[in-house]
Amino acid sequence: MSNEPPAGPEPGSGRLWTDPREAQEHTPWLEPRRRIAPRAATTPPPPPPPGDERDPDEGAILRRRRVLGIVAGTLAALLLIAVGVLGAGLLRDDASPSASLPVIPGAAPADQRSRSIRAIYAAAKDSVVPVRVKGTLTQGSGTGFVIDKGGVIVTNAHVVKDAQQVQVRVSDKAGYVDADVVGADVSSDLAVLHVDSSAVARLRPLPLADSDKVQVGDATLAIGYPLGINRSSSASSGIVSGLGRSIDAANNFSIDKVIQTDAAINPGNSGGPLLDAAGRVIGVNAAILTAGGGGSVGIGFAIPSNTMREVVPRLERGRTVEHAYLGVQTREFQSGPGAYVAGLTPGAPAADAGLQVGDVVVGVDASPVTVPEDISAAIEDRAPGDRVAIEVQRAGARKTLHATLGVRPETAPGSTPTAPTSP
User: Fold this and answer.
1) What is the pTM of this model?
2) Please, is 41 exposed, middle or buried when counting C-beta atoms within 10 Å of its C-beta (0-12, 13-18, 19+)?
3) What is the chain's mean pLDDT, rounded?
4) How many C-beta atoms lie closer than 10 Å to residue 58's C-beta?
5) Which has the closest alpha carbon to 186: 215, 161, 220, 219?
6) Which of 270, 291, 186, 255 is CA-nearest to residue 222?
7) Can you tell me the distance from the alpha carbon of 22 to that of 113, in angstroms, rounded to the nearest whole number?
8) Distance CA 358, CA 342 (A)
9) H or E element: which one contains 147?
10) What DSSP string runs through 216-245?
11) What percent of the chain has pLDDT over 90?
12) Which of 36, 30, 57 is nearest to 45 (CA)?
């Protein structure tokens, strides 16, 4: 699987933001003045007064100097007037919207950003496919994207949940073809589809970025088929607006290290890629926050690409993905950092280790716990059977307990499976 960025319109350029100095042209303020030869004198100059020993040509030189002085003074006056007019325009409270605005250092002009976005979209769009799902009583749609030339496509688990038939369209000019669901992991909301390799032979698999290196403010581009508009894919650009978020999976366990973006994501975008400025996948669009109407409010969430690296190879081989499990229900501790233990699952590792309701978890294996999400983040990369140290505050004293992690059940105990607010 290649990690190289897609080829853009210019060699070595796949950025959304470029240096504005690359687009500027140098234009001198004034063109060089042409020297005009003085006309030949028709009558000889008068002789100098008695006692004046100056050269006969010195008078002409002095006259030229006076002319040049007048010209220079005029230009200086015009320049001062121009500066005054410009300053007055910038200081007016009622300046028109078309007035020049300050340029953010390092930001490219709008036309350059548009060209870069177009180049990334053009390189990736043919690798993003609409997914059509038919179930017993319902049917729906989502998005997927090709990750290798063997016909492997990634989408969300909630897109293909309870599907009896799944189809994808690998070209805007072609019809839908059947796809097999190779595997799905509800806890990470990822699924792997497979189509005949000949159907995607001409498509370029999308490379994966290292999502641990993503930073708030990085440019993003989301591609998908929102709201049933599947004649061709749609693109929306934005930035990474948050990191380390948590969302609920359909089995009510949390998905951690989720990437937040303000790129517009709507129903139907589920399973589509979230790309960086080099056209690499940093996440799989999975969920949105809504405000009554159900549409995007500018807060979308994507499963990080590094989670894909761990889960997808197992699904490709048809294996079940086992997640580490502690079995503790927590909430925020109001009196300081930590996770307040509000409940324990009987027979689960946390209860067997001796945790009690009322304990405040402040660390897991030397990783500090300041909010409840830190507990699941601390064991996310662990495997069932690993032993972890849990530091708690109890009755004003600190105590260290040890737990052997178990296997996460299909559904969080005491909860009813629900579908996430999905795009």
Assistant:
1) 0.67
2) exposed
3) 77
4) 11
5) 161
6) 270
7) 13
8) 7
9) strand 139-148
10) TT-EEEEEE-GGG--SS-EEEEEEEEEEEE
11) 43
12) 57
Please answer whether residues 238 and 265 qualify as being in contact, where contact means their C-beta atoms are separated by less than 8 angstroms. Answer: no
Per-residue confidence band for 263, with pLDDT thresholds at 50, 70 and 90: very high
Q: Element (H or E) spanning 407, and its range? A: strand 406-407
The tokens 């990474």 sit on which residue? 240
Q: Would you state the structure tokens that stand for residue 162, as one six-digit string?
A: 């309870």
- Residues 272-326: tens digit of each pLDDT: 999 999 999 999 999 888 766 555 678 999 999 999 999 999 999 988 888 999 9
Helix (H) or strand (E) holding 62: helix 58-91
* Beta carbons within 8 Å of 423's beta carbon, 6+ residues apart: 224, 226, 265, 266, 267, 268, 269, 270, 285, 286, 287, 288, 296, 300
- CB of 299 within 8 A of CB of 289? yes
Higher pLDDT, 189 or 137: 189
Q: Please, what is the end-to-end C-alpha distance for the chain in angstroms?
A: 27
Amino acid at 314: R
Residue pointed to by tokens 């910038």: 90
d(CA 261, CA 49): 88
The closest of 124, 418, 273 to 259, measured between CA atoms, is 273
The DSSP-derived string for 257-289 is: EEEEE-S---TT-TT-EEE-TTS-EEEEEEEE-
- Does position 104 have pLDDT exceeding 50, yes or no? no
Active-site residues: which are they? 158, 189, 270
Do the Cβ atoms of 152 and 249 come closer than 8 Å? no
Q: Within a 10 A sphere around the Cβ of 113, how many other Cβ atoms? A: 17
DSSP annotation of 127 reads G
In whole angstroms, give the CA distance from residue 263 to residue 288. Answer: 11
Between 78 and 310, name the one with better pLDDT. 310
**How does 114-123 read in b/e, with b if 16+ C-beta sit within 10 Å?**
ebbbebbbeb
Higher pLDDT, 121 or 82: 121
- How many Å apart are CA 260 and CA 237, to the nearest integer? 13
